[in-house]
Specification:
This protein is mainly α. The protein has one domain: ABC transporter involved in vitamin B12 uptake, BtuC (Orthogonal Bundle), CATH 1.10.3470. It is built from eleven helices and four strands. The strands form two sheets. Strands 1-2 form a two-stranded antiparallel ribbon. A two-stranded antiparallel ribbon has the order 3-4. Helix 1 runs antiparallel to helix 10, helix 2 packs across helix 3 and helix 2 packs parallel to helix 4.
């Protein structure tokens, strides 16, 4: 059996695959945070709860309504996105223009309420969601076994990330979003409904988190606290990439997943801290992040 630095190739490739999968989730979640902060300047601490709601909605829709995975893949993010629009309209809009700490505290409180309500209903034991039959099994690549569903997650995450980047950076709608958050009065003068645009932007950002939750449901144990476990890591990824940087969130999310996977292979004791170590180093060298703009 061939080895690299004393590690069997099959073990290394397996950890790399796990790192890419985790990186795909980090990229999706970081992208949603970057969209919300970059365009709206809202530090959304409810993002982990929205990720959890996407996964929980998938399980509940299946158990109670018999909704299959393909329907849940679209319905669950839309449901969570609608909730995000309501949160922005009834809560966040009331503190618009205030210091960032207010949005942080408000969204943190919303996350705790959502988590508490679902914990009372479902408890903290994990709920299972069966993998779609079409994705059962995998392919033997010679040096590793690649499960079909893991490949699907990676492909879908990359497509959604690229599509979001293209929409925001290269389309007229994206230019409206950027302009509306930079000079709302000017855009309203051109007949653009800026408040609606802001609500939809926030809803779209949490939709990305919910979409990641739907993808995660067949892989991870679905619990009301699953969002809080990943939120701090995702915030670290966003800081490394640069707060508000769309491309930075995508690239850094995937890169940090790979680094985490390699660390689990060569020095497992540091795997849970390596992303935060990278964050500290980046902040010391470049406080604005790898892809962020200097103040």
């Amino acid at each position: 059996m061939s080895e690299i630095l004393g590690v069997p190739v099959t073990v290394l490739s397996g950890q790399l695959l796990l790192g890419v999968i985790n990186g795909a989730f980090y990229a999706l979640l970081s992208l949603g945070l970057a969209v919300i902060f970059g365009l709206l300047k809202i530090i959304n601490f409810a993002h982990g709860a929205m990720y959890m709601l996407g996964a929980m909605a998938t399980v509940v829709l299946f158990d109670n309504l018999g909704v299959n995975y393909w329907v849940a893949l679209f319905v669950a993010p839309i449901m969570v996105g609608a909730l995000g629009v309501l949160i922005e309209y009834f809560l966040l809009r009331r503190i618009g223009g205030q210091d960032h700490i207010y949005s942080l505290l408000l969204t943190f409180g919303v996350a705790l309420m959502i988590q508490g309500i679902l914990t009372n209903i479902y408890g903290v034991s994990g709920l299972r969601y069966s993998m779609p039959d079409v994705f059962k099994g995998g392919m033997n690549l010679g040096f590793m076994f690649l499960p079909y569903y893991r490949a699907w997650v990676i492909v879908m995450a990359l497509l959604v990330c690229f599509g979001t980047w293209f929409m925001i950076e290269k389309t007229k709608l994206g230019s409206y979003l950027r302009a509306g958050t930079e000079d709302a009065q000017l855009m309203q003068g051109f007949g653009i409904n800026v408040p609606l645009l802001i609500s939809l932007t926030y809803g779209f950002g949490v939709m990305l988190a919910a979409f990641a939750g739907v993808l995660a449901a067949p892989i991870y144990s679905v619990t009301p606290v699953m969002g809080s476990h990943i939120l701090i890591v995702v915030f670290a990824v966003v800081v490394i990439g640069g707060m508000g940087s769309i491309s930075g969130a995508i690239i850094t999310g995937i890169l940090m997943g790979i680094i985490e996977g390699l660390t689990k292979t060569f020095y497992p004791q540091a795997s849970s801290a390596v992303i935060f170590l990278v964050m500290v180093i980046v902040l010391l060298i470049r406080p604005s992040g790898l892809f962020g703009k200097e103040a």
